[in-house]
Amino acid sequence: MNDASLSAATMSAEGLASAGLPAEAAAGRGPLKIAVYGTGYLGATHAVAMAELGFEVLGADVDQAKVDALAAGKVPFFEPGLDPLLEKHLATGRLRFTTDLTSAAAWGDVHFICVGTPQMKTSHAANLSYVESAATTIAKNLTKDALIVGKSTVPVGTAARLRELVAAQAPAGVSLELVWNPEFLREGKAVDDTLHPDRIVLGGTSERAEATLREVYAGPIAEGTPVVVTDLPTAELVKVSANAFLATKISFINAISTVCEAAGADVTVLADALGHDVRIGRQFLNAGLGFGGGCLPKDIRALMHRANELGAYRASALLQQVDEINMGQRERVLDMAVEACGGSVLNRRIGVLGAAFKPDTDDVRDSPALNVAAALHLRGAQVTVFDPEAGDTARRSFPTLSYATSIEEAVEGTDAVLVLTEWDQFATADADKLAPLTATPRVVDARGKLDPARWRAAGWEFAGLGRPAA
Ligand SMILES: NC(=O)c1ccc[n+]([C@@H]2O[C@H](COP(=O)([O-])OP(=O)(O)OC[C@H]3O[C@@H](n4cnc5c(N)ncnc54)[C@H](O)[C@@H]3O)[C@@H](O)[C@H]2O)c1
Ligand SMILES: O=c1ccn([C@@H]2O[C@H](COP(=O)(O)OP(=O)(O)O[C@H]3O[C@H](CO)[C@@H](O)[C@H](O)[C@H]3O)[C@@H](O)[C@H]2O)c(=O)[nH]1
């Protein structure tokens, strides 16, 4: 975002009025006070971005360590571009963090709920206890009229239920609205996605709530970001449908990759050719180990669960296939590793390149790479993992695996090397220099990122998902 379009709150009253903003904003009352509940991947980014847009922001979380880190200017996870903006707005004084949720509720005009909605341990349903707890705390402790804005990803019908919950908790005389404004940011590109979103979806807003949110998002709106104003269920469903569509696209190309493999075709060339059709597009057609992370897997499962509850069985059956194809990719890669090692991985040394669920993050939630690495370890392989950013988070989740600090160290003395996360630095690694470090130069490219001709020319035995054998 350039400075000219930057800040609703720091624009002049005339500027606000000419941007079509509400009268009370143009009338010169102070900047909106924005409280953000949950300061994880979504909430920390949202809080920082709100400060960048010119508002006074208080980030509130129940995790003392996270709040301490953020208050000290340290983002507790790897997200490109977030640290400098955090430092900038701690310095401007616009951004603060607290574990005192009660005070945050009393302080804010707009309350963004950004807490987690993980999969339940015993079913595919989303665990809504954190969202319910945050909403209740906010409502109970309000001291003035307020707007609660849900950003967390929730099953359709949740917001309507929360409305009843907060209405029962809010103090008498306080006017309270609850709306939904789902978030579409991608990890690794979170700052840019938040400041320059593809679209802004506002669900269940009154005229007044819509005006307030148009004030909050005045910067992106002035840049031309489309705003979709709709009802609560549509807003909730837009979010999970977007993720379901992305997941379906990935599982589609992975299903086709099995046909490619059987027929001797190359799925990477096929995807490029498909992608030239603008109706299809090239994005999310990278065949490989499949999708993981804190969103796509749990969101398609929660949608399956909710669709079944609502009697929409065909939608649920479609997503079940998407999930099965995706999980099957992990089995395929495991089989390829076993085959590369001559039928058993017992006591074989395997170098794993990649631990994060995707590049440019240190997030290992439901990481396909770590899932495969751990399965190989359980089968008796000696597995050494290298990831440019996710080594520490991976070690915390899977302490029994060995971790290297460079590609060279991970590859040293191996019987096979697996490329499991699509980091650029693996694609550009020097195949000639790496080959002599191994016991036997064998590579399994599970992300379609390596150039088979280059690796084979450097002496490697090369196997790729959906790629022809040599
Ligand atoms: N991670 C993403 O890229 C992304 C993008 C869009 C939407 N989402 C959705 O956003 C939500 C949060 O995801 P995340 O990845 O940031 O999760 P996260 O686990 O990184 O962060 C959630 C945070 O909420 C805090 N929390 C829990 N209960 C709380 C409470 N009552 N009050 C205040 N804080 C509380 C936790 O301590 C944690 O720090 C989920 O619904 C997710 O599906 C995530
Ligand atoms: O062609 C592709 C593209 C992605 N992936 C994998 O798909 C997963 C998810 O990737 P991505 O969607 O980029 O990651 P997230 O940061 O989890 O973002 C998704 O989930 C967020 C949380 O809901 C949404 O906000 C985003 O819009 C949505 O893209 C990763 O494991 C990737 O390796 C593939 O296998 N092939």
UniProtKB/TrEMBL annotation:
- In this protein, the active site sits at C295
Q: Which GO terms describe its biological process?
A: polysaccharide biosynthetic process
Q: Which InterPro entries match?
A: 6-PGluconate_DH-like_C_sf, NAD(P)-bd_dom_sf, UDP-Glc/GDP-Man, UDP-Glc/GDP-Man_DH_C, UDP-Glc/GDP-Man_DH_C_sf, UDP-Glc/GDP-Man_DH_dimer, UDP-Glc/GDP-Man_DH_N, UDPglc_DH_bac
Q: Which UniProt keywords apply?
A: NAD, Oxidoreductase
Positions annotated to bind substrate: F184, L185, R186, E187, K239, F284, L285, N286, A287, G288, G292, K358
Q: What Gene Ontology molecular-function terms does this entry list?
A: NAD binding; UDP-glucose 6-dehydrogenase activity
Residue sites binding NAD(+) per the record:
D61, K66, T117, T153, E187, K298, R365
Q: Superkingdom of the source?
A: Bacteria
**Does the UniProt entry include the keyword Ribosomal protein?**
no
Q: In which pathway does it act?
A: Nucleotide-sugar biosynthesis; UDP-alpha-D-glucuronate biosynthesis; UDP-alpha-D-glucuronate from UDP-alpha-D-glucose: step 1/1
What EC number is given for this enzyme? Answer: 1.1.1.22
User: Which ranges carry the UDP-glucose/GDP-mannose dehydrogenase C-terminal domain?
Assistant: 351-452
Catalyzed chemical reaction(s): UDP-alpha-D-glucose + 2 NAD(+) + H2O = UDP-alpha-D-glucuronate + 2 NADH + 3 H(+)
Q: Does the keyword Acetylation apply?
A: no
Report the function annotation for this chain.
Catalyzes the conversion of UDP-glucose into UDP-glucuronate, one of the precursors of teichuronic acid.
Please report which protein family the annotation says this sequence is part of: Belongs to the UDP-glucose/GDP-mannose dehydrogenase family.
Name this protein carries in UniProt? UDP-glucose 6-dehydrogenase
Q: What is the lineage of its organism?
A: Bacteria, Bacillati, Actinomycetota, Actinomycetes, Micrococcales
